[in-house]
Predict the 3D structure of the following.
Amino acid sequence: MYKYVNFLKLKLNALTREEMINALPELCKKGRPAKTAIYINAHCVNMSFSDKEYRSILNTAELVYAGGQGVVWAAGFLGCPIPERVNILDFFERLIERLIDKKITVYLLGNTREVVEKTESILKNKGVDIVGARDGFFPESECAEVIKEINKVKPDLLIVGMGAPKQEKWIKAHSDKLDAGLCWAVGATFEWISGYRKRAPAWMIRLGLEWLHRLLQQPGRLWKRYIFGNIIFIYHVLNWRIKHGKNI
């Protein structure tokens, strides 16, 4: 449905932010199984090489987009360029206007209770039709109840913020049971919307250094992902270029 490139054997959609704003509401049209939209960054690419289930989920999703600047640079280096990084925080305010205009109902699932409730309050104040919200820290034994709660309100858009690959695997496991149009995996986005995390300065975003800002905020948790992870990502990209050359 949407144009894509073959990026490291991943089906990566080549969309601009404006095209994303148009695509997401379109995907919210009801139908089972629920459709899926997923971002990828360098960390996600690394996981796709070691986790076959996750890679399969990426390659069967309706929409997979570049949420990290490293993916944009690497795609160009490998000869399968994509227009730009499509990070949710770069287009979310404009998407909100579209969701309101299209009367799309939204359910929030993920993160802690405090974070998701704050996110719910902020989005409701902006005019978004939030029909439900709950945290993502529930045991498997409560999963059926969570799905029942979601299906009771039948959201057009289910936004899931559990972190990759947990969120993608949860969506895949339950998409045929969910009465929702689109399940959108968004990682830690609720933490930025709610204000519990501060975004990088504009100059760092322009230079593709938003990862460094995150690392400085949470060095104990993220140093392995960004120090070793970036090296591993570069290895995968260079190894692919040496073995396969550029896509032409």
Observations:
- The chain has one domain: 4-193.
- The first strand starts at residue 4 and ends at 7.
